[in-house]
Amino acid sequence: MSTTTSQTPAHTRSSSAALFDEARRLFPGGVNSPVRAFGAVGGTPLFIDKGAGPHIWDADGQRYIDFCCSWGPLILGHAHPVVQERIMQAVSQGTSFGAPTRLENELGGLILDHHPHAERIRFVSSGTEAAMSAIRLARGVTGKSKILKFDGCYHGHVDALLVKAGSGLATLGTSTSAGVPEAYARETLVLPLNDLEALEATMKQYAHELAVVAIEPIPANNGLLIQDPAFLQGVRDLCDRYGVLLLFDEVISGFRVAFGGAAEYYGIRPDVMAFGKIIGGGMPVGAYAASAEVMDHVAPVGPVYQAGTLSGNPVAMAAGAGQLSECLKPGFYEDQERRTGRLVNPILAHAASKGYPLRIFTRGSIFWLAFSDQVHIRRSSEIDPDSMAYFSRLHGALLERGVYLGPSGYEVGFVSAAHGDAVIDEAVSAFTEALDAVFS
Ligand SMILES: Cc1ncc(COP(=O)(O)O)c(C=O)c1O
Questions:
Q1: Which of 162, 248, 277 to mutate to test the pocket of ligand 1 (most atoms within 8 A of CB)?
Q2: Are residues 51 and 113 in the same domain?
């Protein structure tokens, strides 16, 4: 793509700017989820009117190649005909009944029949709800109350998980949000990723109180912190040795890097899993799953209470079933990886030829741009906050060239099945031009 595609100079964003002014009167910061506010990159958010395939159009009629993909759910791209058809069909029959439907069986069956470790599943309405419920389940099963998470992993805005490390090595957490009581935070231990020694020392000290170790096996919320498989296996082994459950939060990685998520990708068995995003085909869905034995602790069979008025919503179930059927087609995940390589490799080659400090980490169709020379970035503390200034400039330069990334350098991008070769090649040209602009 040449400079002729520089289609979105800031002055053409007047409709988005006017809508944002109005939104600021209505919503805190003008948004209904914080990162949408463009706080990290500056400027006002684009208001999106529509999407089709790999593209979105803003309120000023400008078209962008979208690598945010609604933060991951849209693995088939926008308005995929199969998903749309399933949604229309479901809506035509009514939108919610508060009673079981055959669509829940369809999506539940589709997942359990093709996932290596999930034997029973419970649908909820978001990834946050999935992580929260999975943790309650782990506490209910083990009868223990503490949980352990890793610095740099995000599990939704669950009180007990909005926690960062306090001081010291094996540490009780302190809350990262106002409104989370310190007493809750003290139930959460926080450790650095990629440190089995610290985990073992903590296990030794707390195993009798520790219900569950929660991890994003492919941490994708503070950059893409690719873990050494030996670390993930080590976490599994320590959980087994100390009688602690292992929760894989696969809200991003599930159905993204393989149908069976990181568990299948790395061949590591979690005890409990949290899902979201892709399983709803762009509708609000989450789920948690485990062995039948563990899941049968959930009400109405067992004593762990969890419920939801809109859980298993038929429209969302239909959208998810439509999307996952496409993901199950032969070669789907290999093709996703190939597309991602087609995007990333020429950008890296360009950056290398110009001596720009850029690395792009990938897993499946997830990618993350790091303005760094480091070969591995496994912990959030290894990300240089100053490098975010490059991302901020790149984000603006890409918008001007018709490419949309999530508005924060700590966020990952997603390639979808709708990003065909021609679109990817167009995006590569935009990226190389934008990088030249950033480093000029
Ligand atoms: C790994 C992970 N867990 C949980 C969540 C929370 O999901 P939701 O935003 O649907 O509540 C997210 C959201 O991005 C996530 O990435």
A1: 277
A2: no
Tell me which of 58, 249, 266, 333 is the catalytic residue.
Answer: 249
Q: Is 97 inside a domain boundary?
A: yes
Tokens of 100: 């079981």
- Residue 13 alpha carbon to ligand 1 centre in Å: 29
List of E strands, 81-227: 120-124, 146-150, 163-165, 171-175, 188-191, 210-215
| Secondary structure of residue 2 in the 3-state scheme | coil
Residue with tokens 């290596």: 116
pLDDT tens digits for range 52-79: 999 999 999 999 999 999 999 999 999 9
Domain that holds residue 363: 3-66+333-439
pLDDT of residue 300: 98
Q: Which atom of ligand 1 is nearest to the CA of 221?
A: 16
Biggest CA pair distance of the chain: 64
Q: Which of 32, 128, 414 has most ligand 1 atoms within 8 Å of CB, for mutation?
A: 128
Has 277 been annotated as catalytic?
A: yes
* Domain boundary, last residue among 302, 327, 352: 327
What pLDDT, in 10s, does the model give residues 315-365?
999 999 999 999 999 999 999 999 999 999 999 999 999 999 999 999 999
Number of domains in the chain: 2
Q: Which of 267, 294, 327 is the last residue of a domain?
A: 327
Minimal-distance CA residue to ligand 1 atom 3: 155
Q: What is the pLDDT of residues 169-228, one digit of tens each?
A: 556 788 889 999 989 889 999 999 999 999 999 999 999 999 999 999 999 999 999 999
Atom of ligand 1 nearest to the CA of 219: 1
**Averaged confidence pLDDT in the chain:** 95
Does residue 287 share a domain with residue 223? yes
Estimate the share of the chain in helix, then strand, then coil, as percent rounded to the nearest 5.
45, 15, 40
Same domain flag for 206 and 224: yes
Nearest protein CA to atom 5 of ligand 1, as residue: 156
- In-domain check, residue 75: no
Calculate how far, in angstroms, residue 12's C-alpha sits from the geometric centre of ligand 1.
33
Give the pLDDT band of residue 367 (cuts 50, 70, 90): very high
**280 C-alpha to center of ligand 1: Å?**
13
What residues have CB less than 8 Å from 369, skipping those under 6 apart?
A: 358, 359, 360, 391, 394, 409, 413
